[in-house]
Amino acid sequence: MGTGFFPSRHRSCAGCSERTVEVKGEEVAEYYHRGVVCHLIGLPLAVPLDVELMRPGEGELPAGRRLMERSVETYGRLFDVAVVDALYFNEDVVTFWLKHGKHVIATLKENNSSLLEDAKGLFTMMEPKVWREGKKTVRCWDAERFIYGKTGTIRMRVLYAEETTTKRERRGSRTVEKTVETYWSWGTTIPASVLPTRELWHFAHARWDIENDLFETLVKHWSLNHCFKHDPTAILNFLLTLFIAYVLLQSFYQRNMKPELRSRFTLIAIAVELTIGVAAPHCVAPWVALFTGPAP
Question: Which residue, among 46, 75, 52, 76, has the nearest Cα to 247 in the 3D structure?
Answer without folding.
Answer: 46
